[in-house]
Ionotropic glutamate receptor C-terminal domain-containing protein (Pisum sativum), 634 residues
Amino acid sequence: MIRVWLVLLMALSNLLFSSAAVGLENSTVPEFINIGVLYSFNTSVGRIVKIAVETAVDDINSDSTILGKTKLTLSFQEDSKYRGFLSIAEALQLMATHTVAIIGPQTSTTAHVISHIANELHVPLLSFSATDPTLSSLQFPFFIRTAFNDIFQMTAIADMVSHYGWREVIVVYGDDDHGRNGIGALADKLAERRCKISFKAPMTPDAKREEITDILVQVALAESRVIVLHTSTSWGPKVLSVAKSLGMMQNGYVWIATTFLTSYIDIDSPLSSDEMDNIQGVITLRMYIPDSKLKRSFVSRWTNLTRGKEGNGSLGLSTYGIFAYDTVYVLARALDTFLKQGNQITFSHDPKISELRGDSLHLDAVKIFNEGNLLCKSIYAVNMTGVTGPFRYTPDGNLANPAYEIINVIGSGTRRIGYWSNYSGLSVVPPETLYSKPPNRSYENQKLLTVFWPGETTQTPRGWVFPSNGKLLRIGVPKRVSYREFVSQVQSTDMFKGFCIDVFLSAVNLLPYAVPYKFVPYGDGQSNPSNTELVRLITAGVFDAAVGDITITTERTKMVDFTQPYTESGLVVVASVKKTDSNAWAFLTPFTPMMWTVTAIFFLLVGAVVWILEHRLNDDFRGPPKKQVATILW
Ligand SMILES: *[C@@H]1O[C@H](CO)[C@@H](O)[C@H](O)[C@H]1NC(C)=O
Ligand SMILES: *[C@@H]1O[C@H](CO)[C@@H](O)[C@H](O)[C@H]1NC(C)=O
Ligand SMILES: *[C@@H]1O[C@H](CO)[C@@H](O)[C@H](O)[C@H]1NC(C)=O
Ligand SMILES: *[C@@H]1O[C@H](CO)[C@@H](O)[C@H](O)[C@H]1NC(C)=O
Ligand SMILES: *[C@@H]1O[C@H](CO)[C@@H](O)[C@H](O)[C@H]1NC(C)=O
Ligand SMILES: *[C@@H]1O[C@H](CO)[C@@H](O)[C@H](O)[C@H]1NC(C)=O
Ligand SMILES: *[C@@H]1O[C@H](CO)[C@@H](O)[C@H](O)[C@H]1NC(C)=O
């Protein structure tokens, strides 16, 4: 009973509290709306984002068509240790300032952690740099991505891998939510194209040079030469520089780096010639922003915007800066609709936090944003044209028409070799020109310009080598005594020769990947070994395969799979040879004597009938009986 009262009392007090919170507001629009920005401002991307967000807020506040008299204010919170527990504390601190939404965080790892807080307090998180695909899950309804989901970037990479005819790739990634989940998406997309990841090389998220070296040495020993690098801007370039020092930037290697490399190049440009040397021939991607008047004017403003803020030259503009700017606009437009619909912005105590009795952490300060759900809805309904181009969401919560530029690092700069769009795959023309045509993903339509691969070659690397650490396939070969032209051991060596071996070697050379093998002789060399026994040893695990003049029999096909037969024996019937006597009358044998007699009788009968019918009318059938008999016979 007491418990029931307690619950009732608590419910009542909550009601009082929340109604009090609502009561503070009236139907007039608020004067200020507070937005939180949780970001690591002390990183190269963070510096750009800060400038872009501040610029956007200034622009919106001076534009009376958005949000009318209401002004946006920003609460910045440095996400200094942008991983784990401290981020939680920082997010809570920000939410205590009654923010209606939070822009950020920078990394997918932090996004995973603080999305739980956003869920509890109904505060939307808008991030343009946490691109981990799994953040789009239903688990995080308050996480809204204002840039492209990595699943599209991974699709683009898988499309490139299959476009160049490679079958296996190696992935090098930071072993955190961002790296792992991105690579998971890549594995799915490769599987759809019958390719696969042959080796995964995870690294601690801020790996030291020694660790990178150890891991890259293992990568160099593997068979595949196509390496996908999915890390963060802060240490990704270090991996490439170690790779260069290990000689892994040479002819034969393919390096595909995800968007981290373009933001490194864009922000820190121009890079020193040493830094450029480390990344020659690398292929990378950049989120595609179509050319427009808005974009051009923003780019030309950028130098002015950065001047003075850093005091130290200008910062290059990365796509993150443009997406950050648009994110604020999206939020402002959503708030505009939200307020025009007559919604209020109210906060109330979280009853679940109040239940934590003896709240020594003072979590009471954080409150639930009551209309968070409505704000999320109006963000997803935004349909505007921003600096990043047309901006709207598809029903699955992704930005419509994601596209990437494909960049080849060459010389002292970069060269765009094409585009990838979700709409039409790889193309050399900008994606927006394709949207008016029906999507065409046919193989002939997928094009990219010539690439300068590592080692300054334009010839597409075949993508694999014979590995030095691979397990050898054990191929059983019968030590034949007879018919040695099919297969036989070369005298006093462990090599084999013969027709079957030649066929096997030619087939292996045609494969698009390496098959390391060794021949293992089978048999004592005194007599021909039993082929059935050789085949049985494959099932027993002694051999992995067998090569030889092994006849395909029903019994053997039950044990192993055979290749197509490559020597034609044909189907023949074999019978014992018997001497038959033959004479001049042999032509009579097809019919029996009875048959011959009947034939002769009919022959005469027909002659007689013809004679009976003809001899009264036809002069030829007259004359002496001897002549008439001759006529009948004739
Ligand atoms: C709305 O509330 C403000 C103070 O929060 C007050 O000054 C104003 O008179 C109120 N307006 C109405 C219409 O109640
Ligand atoms: C920014 O980071 C550098 C190291 O990367 C550090 O030395 C510096 O103190 C940091 N600055 C601030 C303001 O946190
Ligand atoms: C940059 O700033 C200068 C003066 O500070 C101004 O004259 C110029 O028009 C600005 N350029 C742009 C593109 O805003
Ligand atoms: C730029 O940074 C360097 C050190 O990184 C410093 O010595 C220099 O004074 C700075 N320049 C300006 C204009 O702040
Ligand atoms: C978005 O707005 C454009 C015009 O600005 C319109 O043509 C388009 O249909 C709208 N899209 C949606 C999904 O409402
Ligand atoms: C991407 O393409 C697929 C199939 O072509 C389509 O189903 C999906 O809606 C597209 N996604 C976006 C965000 O445009
Ligand atoms: C796709 O493009 C190829 C070559 O560009 C063309 O031959 C083919 O007809 C196109 N298919 C469709 C359905 O438009």
Q: What stands out?
A: The chain is about 40% helix and 15% strand. Residues 42 surround 2-acetamido-2-deoxy-beta-D-glucopyranose (ligand 2) (CB under 6 Å).
